[in-house]
Amino acid sequence: MTTLDAGARLPADYHESLAMDLRDTIRTYGFLSGSYDFVFGPVFHPGRKEAVRVANDRPSQRILEVGVGTGLSLPYFRPDSHVTGIDVSAEMLEKAKRRVERKNLSHVDALHVMDAEHMSFEDNSFDAVLALYVASVVPNPARFAEEMRRVCIPGGTIVLVNHFTSENWALRWMEKRLAHLARHIGFHSDFPLDAFLRDSRLSAREIRPSNLFGYWRLLRCINEKPASTI
Fold it and tell me: For labelling, which of 55, 64, 90, 151 has a CA lying 20 to 30 Å from the CA of 157?
């Protein structure tokens, strides 16, 4: 049975101690929770489905999805997998829980309200970790990557799908102009791939275009231990 831990993972004074951009992210996703599936479901569907296929390629895997949101990816995992999802938005997770119950997704073990930069899981808890459309909304992407590496087993698979700064000069110019505004809703529009790979120290074995027009990219990484201290 799937459990929804809607508060135990966060201390009582959690919101007072959050960085401003994380508070903005929580507020934004709480606001979007009712319309998220309609607005972001279809356009992100190809990358979501492909990422699950890449990460969940063996039987009986323990898999963590960071930023599981409303659970749009959960139906695509193998039925013999053991999936845990985390998100900072309790409103989004409530919708994920209802999706799990409605579709009888018995492979989903638990859903937790949890900060991706400060996970409460033990080291080496998961065979694979996914983060779909999350890297550019966390306050500290390097810390976020370090935590994914910590909870993933040595040699395990880490898969990300995310927007990165466009290689097209016109789009890149627009992303830079929008960066200040985007930051106020908890999103980094100017997010260079090379800087992310350098700072995260993720070992990317494959990088490919994803979703409409290839504007997003899928990264398949192998977890090399020990995780570097950021």
Answer: 90
CATH 3.40.50.300 fits 3-222, yes or no: no
Domain ranges of the chain: 3-222
Helix (H, G, I), strand (E, B) or coil at 163: strand
CB within 8 A of 148, min separation 6: which ones? 64, 66, 116, 129, 131, 158
d(CA 26, CA 32): 10
Q: For residue 74, what are the contacts with CB-CB under 8 A and spacing of at least 6?
A: 65, 68, 83, 85, 96, 99, 100, 103, 105, 108
Residue 14 Cα distances to 8, 53, 119, 147, 197, angstroms: 11, 35, 13, 18, 29
The pLDDT score that the predictor gives to residue 27 is: 57
3-state DSSP call for residue 197?
helix
| Average pLDDT score, the chain | 80
* pLDDT tens column, 177-204: 444 444 444 445 567 889 999 999 999 9
Distance, in Å, from the CA atom of 83 to the CA atom of 106, rounded to the nearest integer, reads 9
Residue 191 is predicted with a pLDDT of 78
pTM of the model: 0.77
